[in-house]
Amino acid sequence: LRKVLWLFAAAALVHAADEWVDKHRSATDQLIRSATTSTDGYARLTYLCDRIGNRISSSPAMAKAVTWAAAEMKAAGFENVVTSPVKVPNWIRGDASLRVVKPYTRDLALLALGGSVGTPTEGITAPVVVVSSFTELDALGTEKVKGRIVLFNPNWEGYGRTVQYRSAGAIRAAKLGAVAVLVRSVTGNSLYTPHTGAMNYAADTPQIPAAAITVEDAGWMARLQAAGEPLTVTLKLGCQRLADATSANVIGEIRGRELPDEIVVIGGHLDSWDVGQGAQDDGSGAMAALEAVRLISKLPQKPRRTIRVVLFTDEEFGGSGGRAYEQWAGNTVEKHFAAIEMDGGAEAFAGFGVSPEPAWQRFRAIGRLLEPLGSTSVTVGGGGADIAPLMRRGVPGVGHRASGGHYFDWHHTNADTIDKVDPKEFQKNVAALAVMAYVLAEME
Ligand SMILES: [Zn+2]
Description:
Oligomer: single chain
Bound molecules: zinc ion
Strand content: 15-25%
Structural class: alpha/beta
């Protein structure tokens, strides 16, 4: 009995500990109502996608997006709107082709991986050797890899585990003398769509060209190899690395009414890959953050702390935007109360993850206010690539989560377009960001 009573007492304590959020409920319910009825956020996302288009950080389109987003922030009544310059890598995709030349003739879809070197103009013609893992590659050794094009054809085991073949494949294959790499696109589902993404080189191995092919073609090549009929292909990539370019983070805020020096950062990345429209990744996150804060600014009373929207540049090509913001903020990072990031797409809202654990314990009750949005989940463990530099300096990081049922079907492809973003789900994600930012800015 004593044990049972103790459990009841503990449950009551937890409940009482969470009740502090209830006094914010009328304001957050108002935010949820306005977010789920306003079409302004989705209209901005549509403009960004349809009129500005994809925007790798070094591109003229990204420069246009920066100017436009700053103007949108000013029009929304944000204060201290600035575009803060950031040096970014400048890589040009150029023309690309992949032709099977033996024993068939066939042109295959491909996308160069971001950062890849180009091939000679006449291309690289070599036999393909297919492997499903680094272990399999290493077992082949130099003798069977040298002078060939390695195709990595790993099973999809989720993004986090599978992406290593895209990021490190060129290094591992070059070590054994491969002349180029092809990587099966990092996705679980494919409708013949290649997926690009960042890749790395190492100082001690030759830089060899790298491109993604479709899941369908990777499977085809693997089956032919298994049948004893390996392919020879010609790969042509016109990629070029130019001198670094200048892009910018777009920053704007609503000043806090009592603690203006304490800052809640909220954002996503404005840049995208140079294909598709960067709709889910991450136009949706950037535009949801902007709209969430615009709606907060319309409340009768401004929150106690300052809420600052940061639309980061160059998340995709190395994260220089996130690092530049941390530098730009300098000593004021110590006054950053929390940082929220949305960069997992705008499918059904699925809660927030908070790091480190003590911050989670303080913030988890906010889940009580999110019920109308389909998830009350506020769990330990979260953050994001752009806020990681702030988190390393001790700022609690709050990562927005979406269900992600299809996110990696579209990720880094020509199919990441506005039609993939459901307006109703987008609105709910705006509402969730607004509730989280508001309560963090208002809480004791
Ligand atoms: Zn992203």
